[in-house]
Amino acid sequence: MHISRSPYRLGQPSAVTIGSFDGVHLGHQHLIAEVLREAKQRGLTSTVVTFEPQPREFFDPEGAPARLSSLTDKVRRFRELGVEQLVVLPFDRRLRAMSAADFVEQILQKGLRARWVQVGDDFRFGNDRKGDAAFLRQYDFDVAEMPSQRINGQRVSSTAIRSLLGGGELGEAAAMLGEPYTLSGRVIYGRQLGRTLGVPTANMLLAHPKLAMAGVYVAQTRLNNEWVHGVANLGPKPSVSDSRYWLETHLFDVSPDLYGQRLDVQLLHRLRGIERFDTLDALKHQIHADIQAARAWFSPLNGSDRAP
Question: For the purposes of burial, counting CB atoms within 10 Å of the CB of 243, is it exposed (0-12), middle (13-18) or buried (19 or more)?
Fold first, then answer.
């Protein structure tokens, strides 16, 4: 998959979809699948256009909704889905000031040489908010609009998934995401407190500290193309006065050197919330209780994954 920060000089005419794609959920996946189908049928390059930061983060950094996925997470999903070309537009003052007409003419027509464009039924773009499927149909390319996907009557959306994750309903969220909730990142050196307590962890400092959930979770981590069971702590670390968002994962029955590696960690079941412990002994006791609870959650599976 080719990744660019600019829509210009990218080569072949394209089939395009545009959006924030937070979570790359089932609705997004249906959209992208249609782009891939049309691109193949028409001899075009399948292209996804997204924004970083997400527009609502630009307009209201404090009030914007919690992130479901970092740009790294999105890139992983787009690549898995088979997208040929990803354009990540920096959402800045220049892009914010661009009208819907200018966006179409400069980005879609001149930049991407779009021949077929598909958007979701709730998508809008341009500083005048005129950009939608009806607006796009004024231009010299084919336009398709995809209705929202529903599961058990509920609209699949990033907002719904945030609510499910925040409420600890990870199975329901996974059904909308098409996979268990997954976070990706690179393992870095932490305080090595887990190793001191006899429970080494792979530590990832997350790029976006505002997430939809926090707590201790039953987890599995992709290692050499296999899923290894474990337990993970997502969020700040009040016991050591660290307010940053970490994902600390303890892998069961393996002890590889993971420093510098990029890992995918799936959160399968919530065990408890974030707590502050006054002593290392109390923290150690709770960590071992969490490990026992996670092993018990996996135990009926006879070694197979319980994740959707």
Answer: exposed
The domain of 186 spans 181-301
Q: Name residue, tokens 């925040």.
A: 166
Task: Indicate if 63 and 200 belong to the same structural domain.
Answer: no
**What CA–CA distances, in Å, run from 108 to 18, 50, 136, 165?**
10, 13, 10, 35
Residue 106 is given by DSSP the state I
Q: Which among 105, 137, 155 is the end of a domain?
A: 155
Neighbour-count burial of 74, counting CB atoms closer than 10 A to its CB (0-12 exposed, 13-18 middle, 19+ buried): buried
Residue with token string 């039953």: 218
Per-residue pLDDT at 196 exceeds 90 = no
The whole-model pTM stands at 0.88
DSSP 261-277: -EEEEEEEEEEE-----
- Same domain for 273 and 211: yes
What does the alpha-carbon distance between residue 70 and residue 22 come to, in Å, rounded to a whole number? 8
Q: Please indicate, yes or no, whether residues 125 and 32 belong to a single structural domain of this protein.
A: yes
Are residues 48 and 103 located together in one domain of the fold? yes
194, 201 Cβ separation under 8 angstroms? yes
For residue 9 the two structure tokens come to 């000089």
147-190 tens-digit pLDDT: 989 998 899 999 999 999 999 999 999 999 999 999 998 998 86
Here the tokens at position 114 are 């779009």
Does 121 lie in the same domain as 220?
Answer: no
Query: CB of 7 within 8 A of CB of 49?
Result: yes
- Collapsing DSSP states into helix, strand and coil, what is residue 60? coil
Domain count, the chain: 2
